[in-house]
Structures are given as structure tokens and as C-alpha cells.
Amino acid sequence: MTKGKVAVALSGGVDSSVAALLLKEAAYAVIGIHMRLWDSPRSEYQAHRAETICRILDIPYHQVDLQKEFEFCVVDYFCREYRQGRTPNPCVACNQHIKFGFLIDKALSLGADYLATGHYAGVEHSSDGHHLLKATDVRKDQSYFLYTLTQEKLGHILFPLAEYSRGEAKQMAKQAGLPTATKSSQDICFISQKNYGTFLSQRFSTLPGDIVDTRGRKLGQHRGIAFYTIGQRHGLGLAFDKPLYIIRIEPEGNRIVLGHEEELYSQKLAAQKLNWISGKAQQEPITVTAKIRYKSKEAEATLFFRNDTVDVHFAQPQKAVTPGQAIVFYNVDEVLGGGIIESSQPTTQDDGKESFVSASKPR
Questions:
Q1: How many domains does the chain have?
Q2: Which of 128, 215, 223, 274 has the least C-beta neighbours within 10 A?
Q3: Which helix H or strand E contains 197, and what residues bound it?
Q4: Is 189 annotated as catalytic?
Q5: How many Å apart are CA 332 and CA 133, to the nearest integer?
Q6: Nearest to 258 by CA among 224, 211, 225, 220
Q7: What pLDDT score was predicted for residue 349?
Q8: What is the CATH number of the domain that holds 331?
Q9: In contact, 120 and 142? CB cutoff 8 Å
């Protein structure tokens, strides 16, 4: 007797293939489902590998074309945010709208009870609902990308790799004869080698504008705010007596503001587009740990709620808080929810002293 029917989202990479292997060994009725998201040679290669995995595991193979949905929900969003001087996280958008939106609906329409993926995260079911947890392997934990999940969706989701390390997954793939033991999925699947600038320039035209110091004094010219992000130091086309960083992007004036490293720090930020895993919006202030980007460390913070916004007050200043990025809230190993950073308040303020910026000739 099987434990139920589960559709496994197969990317062609090691993680999703091992997820399918584990579920089959655990007596689930497994089918493989591959998303066609992008028209490229790499996409053809991934589809071929996904089909090969299904053949080796002797499970049915399905392919679903979500190129239009991916273009609208992920690629257009990615470009729109950069055009506005923000730094988006397309993986969060893809998980929310594509994998656990259109794909989970397709899986259920095929008669599956669950959709499984190769994410390193966990789901716990209890009398008070479904809980999203960090993976055992904290170095590979991907719960940050999943904060938009809901109670309804978590009831139909399996994460078979929750208790495994990446090394263990690779070893299992090798032992099973899967052709993915040394292959991993690419994060930004529609941009080769993280060449954002070239990709964005092909999507829309940008206007050059001023690079200024914190006093508004012009230091140089940028080639378009879409090509820059908070905290950036290199690639500005300028040289300075002391290291300077982008501390602010002002889309309304098409300006980029530079400052010293200490001016990158913020102790407060505001986030919107919130999602709470429990399905219940918070009301009273709570103390949590929070991550302002995937690779940042968790930091203690207190959340204060007003309408559809949460004000986050960190115990210690955080470096390069970036509008457009996701902020995710945790209670020890459980993901409480998260939102999108809208603004931040610098720890240091202009005290009226003479500006410190001195620019030399452009490089």
C-alpha cells in the first residue's frame, strides 16, 4: 500500500532527483513533473535530464509549459524592480507564483496528493497547523526562499531532503546511478553567469544620471540605476581617496548617493507585502531573529506592526539593508513569515559637517 501519490518537481539537478528517489523508497506513488520555464539550450538539457531520471527511477514523466507565467511573474518582476532602483529576489517570486502556485495546481490536477521539491527545508504537521522549518543542514538551508507559503499549500507539500546534507544527497544519487551526482541547479535560471547588466539592457533602455555624495555634490555619472545596488563599491567608474559605497539609490531623481562604509548600516527598516505562515497576522510587538538577505546571518530584532507594514528594529545595526530584498523572520528553527524591504533608516545621520568625498578622474 502506498502512502499517497506525490508529484516531484524535477529540475534535472541532484537535489530534486534524490527527493524522488527517497519518496519512491518510502512507498509513495511517485510521478516526475518538469517545468519548462525558459527557451534556451540549457532548458532543453534540463528537460532531457529530468526525463532520464524518471526512466531510471521507473516513474511517469510529465512536462508542463509555464514559460508565459514565468515571464510575467518572475522575469518581468525582476526587470521592473531593477528599473526602479530596487534589488529583487527572483527565487522568492518563482517559489511563490510558479513552483507553489501554478505547478502545485498542476500536480493536484494530475491526481497527486502532494508536490515535493528538492528544497532543503522542513514541514511539521501538528494540531495547531503546519509549520515551516529550517533544514538540518544549516549551510544549505533554503527556508528563506519559502516564507510566502501558506497553511493550505503546506498541507500538500513534502520536502524529503529536510534532514539530509548536500553531501549525503550527492552520495545517494551516485549510489542510485542517477546522472546528476555532480550537477546542481542554477539560481538565476534565465541569466547566464549572473550577467545582469547585459540581460537588463536587452529588456529596457536606461537613462544616465548623477552620482553624488551625501551633500548632493556631483561626483560623476552612472549609466542607469538598474545596474547598481546598495552596498556596491566597484564598477562605479570613479576612484576615491577612501573607499566609498552606494548607500542610497534615488529613482525619483535618477541619482546614486555614495558614502563611507559606516553609512551603510541601518538599525531600522520597514517591510510590506507580508506573509505569515500561520495565516494569522501579528498584532503585538514580538522579538524574533531576522535575515535581510539569503546569505546574511540572523539578527535579533523586534517587530512593530502598523496596518500592512512591519517596522523592524534590530538590536544591532545591519549592513546594506536593500529595498526589494526579502526579510524573513524566525523563531529558533521555525519560519514565522516575511516581507519585502521597502525602506531603511541609516544609523548615521548628516551632522552638517563638511562632506568627506573627494573624487579623482574616472577610470
A1: 2
A2: 128
A3: helix 196-203
A4: yes
A5: 9
A6: 211
A7: 52
A8: 2.40.30.10
A9: yes
Range of the domain at 135: 5-193
- The pLDDT tens digits of the residues spanning 87-98 come to 999 999 999 999
Residue 361: inside a domain: no
Pair 188, 77 in one domain = yes
Asked if the structure places residue 160 within a domain, the reply is yes
For residue 101, tell me if it sits in a domain.
yes
Residue 187: give its domain's CATH number. Answer: 3.40.50.620
Going from the C-alpha of 87 to that of each of 80, 95, 289, 323, 326, the distances in angstroms are: 10, 17, 22, 6, 10
The secondary structure of residue 224, as a DSSP letter, is -
Q: Cβ distance 10 to 53 under 8 Å?
A: yes
CA distances 109 to 6, 28, 30, 97, 102, Å, are 12, 18, 15, 17, 11
Same domain, 18 and 99: yes
Measure Cα distances from 128 to 125, 151, 202, 277 in Å: 8, 11, 49, 12
Question: How far apart are the two ends of the chain, measured CA to CA in Å?
Answer: 69
Q: What does the pLDDT look like over 148-177, one tens digit per residue?
A: 999 999 999 999 999 999 999 999 999 999
How distant, in Å, are the alpha carbons of 120, 227, 327 from that of 137? 8, 34, 21
Mean pLDDT of 311-337: 97
Contact 73, 98 (CB under 8 A): yes
Q: Among 149, 166, 193, where does a domain finish? A: 193
Tens digits of residue pLDDT in 325-353? 999 999 999 999 999 999 998 886 544 33
Q: What are the φ/ψ torsions at residue 5 (nearest 5 degrees)?
A: -100, 130
Among candidate residues 54, 73, 91, 94, the one labeled active-site is 94
Concerning whether 73 is annotated as a catalytic residue, the answer is: no
Shared-domain flag, residues 165 and 280: no
CA distance 4 to 9: 16
Residue type for 241, please?
D
Mean pLDDT for all residues in the chain: 91
Cβ(47)–Cβ(35) under 8 Å?
no
Percent residues over pLDDT 90 in the chain? 81
Joined grid coordinates for residue 337: 513569515
From 153, 174, 193, give the residue that closes a domain. Answer: 193
